[in-house]
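Ligand-bound model needed. iron/sulfur cluster.
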Amino acid sequence: MEMKKPVIKSIPYEEFKDNETLEALIAEINKERTNVVVGKLDDLINWGRSNSLWSLTFATSCCGIEFMSVGAARYDFARFGFEVTRNSPRQADLIMCAGTITHKMAPVLKRLYDQMAEPKYVVAVGGCAISGGPFKDSYHVLNGIDKIVPVDVYIPGCPPRPEAILYGMMQLQRKVKVEKFLGGKNRHQKRGELPAEPIIVTNHPVKEDKEQ
Amino acid sequence: MMDIEYIDIKSFRQTMLDRRAAGMDFLREMIGMDWEAEGLGVIYILENSATHDVEELAVRITERDRPQIPTVSDIWQIAEMYEREVYDFYGIEFAGHPDMRRLFLRNDWVGFPLRKDYDPSETINPVRLESEKNEEIVREYDIAEDKQLAELVEKMKILHYDQFVINIGPQHPATHGVLRFRLSLEGEVLRKVDIHCGYIHRGIEKMCESRTYPQTLAFTDRLDYLSAHQNRHALCMCIEKAMGLEVTGRVQYIRTIMDELQRIDSHLLMFSCMAMDMGAITSFIYGFRDREKLLDIMEEVTGGRLIQNYNVIGGVQADITPGFAAKVKEYCNDQKKRLKEYYDVFVNNIIFRNRSIGVGILSREDAISFGTTGGTGRASGWACDVRKRHPYALYDKVEFKEIIHTGGDCYDRLLVRLEEIVESIHIIEQLIDNIPEGDFKTKTKPIIKLPEGRFYAAVEGSRGEFGVFIESHGEKTPYRLKFRPMGLPLIAAAQNIMKGHKVADMITIGASLDYVIPDIDR
Ligand code: SF4
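Prediction:
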């Protein structure tokens, strides 16, 4: 069965910057084929899943305020089905890690991630979560959360604009859409192993915020 | 330029007691120092809350293995937190301090990071993924004068287990960021509150020591991102003061206006979040709706919504845009009308009033002793506005009221913020039409060397006095750069005023104090 390209209504497929990773992912998933019935059922489930991504609020610093702005009236991420934020990891689909992660916070993040039920995703929002950002050479800052948890989408910026956060969340939707829930494995991942290729979001469609 | 008086360690406590008796009731700042060969030490900045006289004192000790200085935590309550911070960064033990634990770093951290000989290598302090063990017992050092080295005298339990202990945070929506509370409860009543910070301690002060002066600017926006302009203003002012640089009139106008816009932004956010914490989502949406309009104006001028990087040494990054004045005026008019809505939808709501009036009362004496400047101090009747106490920029030229309430409860703390929005608008309206022509920036060299000395500058941030202390040894990087956190006094006070209230009130008190965690942890 041919796997469909994921459709996001508001942005056509070509307008996403990073389609290669996704196509590679589709190819990999398609290596083991599924039958039509289960495939359709999968589509249905994924349609539902991708439009109701519940995030665990994990805002540690400045980026968290932008995350709040995305939730408020102007940007309103309820349009995409992200409006339900959970404060318990047991009920969340993804961790939206917005802000610096320090040495003291690292075990907490790891524990919360471990407590979440599969399938789970991690979105790294802002330079700090991606690489340590402006605090890269500090003695107490973790240089990127991908050192301790696998990351699905990176959203750069300091802080990323709300539009960028929305764009990143759409990328995650696309990733969710091509996954197989029934039959076939979502992740060829062993315990403790980091995932193969994360999707990297560029600050499209807004031009990049100038630092300094 | 600061004029510091060194006190001998033997007469230190007596001197401090004398100063307190002489009316120096506000411990403005306590700065740990490592002067290498001259030893470790602490600088104290004291202020008289009535006359606003400032005095700077310092104490030095050459011992490095177990340096000990007598505590002042019984003289000024805030010193309890400050001393824990100094202990954490420099390893100076304060004899007589009731609770000598680390404040920011994990308790299994090796070494004292702000000492000049600290080894930051990954092998000594790797990223530990196991959780930190709670310290149940604290050390207290005897203050006895005759002993050479104060000894461990008493083991005190932090929380008593005959009471019920619960843990809130570090990742909890009600803590406004990553703060952790350990509460011991009796029924639903809080008996003791133990606050843990450091979950967002980024080591900014240490990093500044290896940055050139223009590079240090970038960190200030990320401390308290809701007073980004004011923070940066303070650092620029401190550096300019040290360089002897006068900024142009235009710059002063722009800076003052932007500071006030930022203050409105912060107070709107405080209102929204307080409402949200208490379950009033509508008010949250209202507040954010108006905040977005403000952010639009700021974005147009500075290019950033939250982190703006606008002030630079000698001026501002870019000139204001042509339509700026008109937009600001339109916004101000609009905002004045909107304020009434806030009162209708939230402040006069009976549920909110019942939950906030008389809850979490902070007395004026405590406010001064804890050094809770900003809206919290003013709600307790302490006139602590830096704009009035030590005017800077244009604040001595504009006319505005310092909002003072005397209730000291959560309700008053919110009212102070809302009324300050009106005052800020009033200040902006006086300035916006008169912005003089001129340069928006005085050219400076990319590498700036400050003359030797110590410098301190303070501004009124959105939630209190934000101070910057620089010790320069004549190089292109600061020898020591210290920010006065606005939030640390607030949580120190919170620990105190939450006692005896119900768990649900803790949320109200926390929201009304309006702290921002990255500013506390730095
Ligand atoms: S990326 Fe920038 S805005 Fe985001 S948390 Fe880090 S410093 Fe703050």
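The CA atoms of residues 45 and 151 of chain A lie 23 Å apart.
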